[in-house]
Amino acid sequence: MSDRSWSICLILLLTASLLALPSITVVGEAETGYDPSFEIELEQDVRSLFAEGDILYTSSSDGSVFAHDIEDGDEIWRHEEHRGPALTVFYSEGVLYSGGQSGSIVAYDAEEEEKIWRHEKHSGAVNSVFYQDGILYSGGDDGHLIAFDMEEESVLWQHEKHEQKVGSVFYDDGIVYSGGSERGTGIVSAFDVKEREEIWRYENHDVSVNSLFFEDGNLYSSGHDGTVLAFDVEEREIHWEHEEHDGPVDTIFLEDEVIYSGGKDNSIVAYHIVEEEKLWRLEYHDDDVRSVFYHQDTLFSGGAEGSLIGLRDLDIEVDITSSMMIVSDEDSRLMLEYTAENPGDLEARLDFEVLVDGETVRNEEDIRIGPRDTRDLSLAVEVEEEEEHDIELKGMDTTLQTTHDATVSTTETVYAEGDPAEEGLGLHWWITLLVILVMATILAFLLLQVGFRERKDERKKLMVLKEKNKIPAKKDAPGKDLPVEKLEEKREEKERLKEEIETLKKEKDRMEKNTAQYFHQISKMKEKKDALEEEIEYLEKDDQKGQTEEDDLPEEEKTVDRNTALEELSQVKGVGESKAEKLYEHGYRSIKDLRDASKEELCEVNGIGPSLSQMILESLDDE
């Protein structure tokens, strides 16, 4: 049977089935949907966001810092002061601060649209800045937390708070919270600004801490491990934890008891911090979500693909459909059966109202349907026997973070049990039966016609082929009466297959030869690795031997030498006590050792970058 015949059969059967059921079709939709207030594409990825008033500030990986109109996203001004990506922005009291990959921090007058000052106090990328009460706090890849006095335009103090990096900084009530990484573990540290000392720290994420936010005694953090958690700073314990992202979470922002997080799985997730539950999850970006910021009833987000999106009012699209609501009568009850579908990313709550003859007889509330879920539901309502009733289904409101109306209503006249059953089949069933019989007759006729036509066409095609190609009879040997042209084609096909087989054999030999070469290279690399391990073991023994010789010295002599060396080194401009200890540990014992060292050798000391190395050498040359 042809595809056309099958299609005709399916259409007829479906039509007959539908007519055979006393049903009504109800469809309800909630098409409020996210309507971005604006969506623009920047030249590079959006690394950081901060909104104030009617202006949205952003930074990107090409080193630019932008100011956009918050209503339509139009660019107001831009600066390109960083060498490399601009990683973070922070606005306060008319000044915008930005930190860059090169270790620089730049301050701009937001109203005059011009740069105020620039400094490079970090030896690595500046990942986070926070301004409060005249002090700018910053953290970077060098592991340092720096307090910069804005009035004096000088460093007030700096501490190496994390061994690897400081990923985020947040200030509240005299405490600076810094999140970073140490030996593959995410660490959060609390630093008392007045006492200038660390008061506590704890491990809370795997690998690293990427973002922090503090409010009402809870410190919220996100990490490379894909989690977002709330930490009670008074009780020093985790209050709640969520793992809704499929990768690292780069950014979080809290507003009105809702915390928003953006991650490398291209998604934004919203959590209610009091109810401790996820509200929704959305994917509007085609790449990593770098930053989120909530301002003026709008959630702003920036992505690695260069898109900047503003989502206003947070209306979520959820379609709820009710299909084939069968109305059946059983024991004086009407069973309303339907299907509800939720293709959105949010959990929906449905409210229904069933009316019989204009009177509400059943309310069904708080039916929850999960994201991208389909559920078969049913309602049973009591009716009087042997009476005609008008059944109406009203409502279908989906309740999410806000309420969205998706009102549907329909009225259908149905019969309860017993009317007109006493007189035999009702009019509806007679009509249905008649339609089925007519459809069956038409279907049978069409099938016979189609089958006869197809068999006739096949016979014609067979006769044409026999005349054209001289197809042998079944009793003859295969190929006996084939034309010369057909035999030649078969020989050519055979030769072609032989050539393909030969080509495959050669390819197999080549792959086996390459495999042998790879194993030989691996063997050589293993021998080289063993030799390097032996050399490392030798060097470690030599270091231990040198350490033993130093330990054999009298304790008083060692103490004098170390204290003398540290005192001498700390007198050098730009060194200080902490840098003197690092120089001593690296083998520098005197000013003479520093003079003999090159700029590159000094840069190998932890905490001493190119700028400080140049300063040290220039100060020694002046002496």
Give your account of this protein's structure.
- This protein is 29% helix and 41% strand.
- The chain has 623 residues and is an alpha+beta fold.
- A hairpin with a 4-residue loop joins strand 21 (228-232) and strand 22.
- It starts with a helix and ends with a helix.
- The model is unreliable at 16-34, 315-330, 396-426, 473-480 and 555-560 (pLDDT under 50).
Note the topology.
Blueprint: H1 3-19, E1 23-27, E2 36-41, E3 46-52, E4 55-60, E5 65-69, E6 75-79, E7 86-92, E8 95-100, E9 105-109, E10 114-119, E11 126-132, E12 135-140, E13 144-149, E14 154-160, E15 165-172, E16 175-182, E17 185-192, E18 197-206, E19 209-215, E20 218-223, E21 228-232, E22 237-242, E23 249-255, E24 258-263, E25 268-272, E26 277-282, E27 289-295, E28 298-303, E29 307-312, E30 321-330, E31 333-342, E32 348-356, E33 359-369, E34 373-382, E35 388-399, E36 403-404, E37 408-415, H2 427-469, H3 484-551, H4 555-570, H5 576-585, H6 591-596, H7 599-603, H8 610-622
Antiparallel strand pairs: 1-30, 2-29, 3-4, 4-5, 5-6, 7-8, 8-9, 9-10, 11-12, 12-13, 13-14, 15-16, 16-17, 17-18, 19-20, 20-21, 21-22, 23-24, 24-25, 25-26, 27-28, 28-29, 30-31, 31-34, 32-33, 32-35, 35-36, 35-37
Helix pairs in contact: 1-2, 4-5
Strand content: 35-45%
Shape: extended
- The average pLDDT value, as a whole number, equals 75
User: What is the strand tally?
Assistant: 37
Rg (CA only):
39 Å
Outline the low-pLDDT stretches.
16-34, 315-330, 396-426, 473-480, 555-560
Number of helices: 8
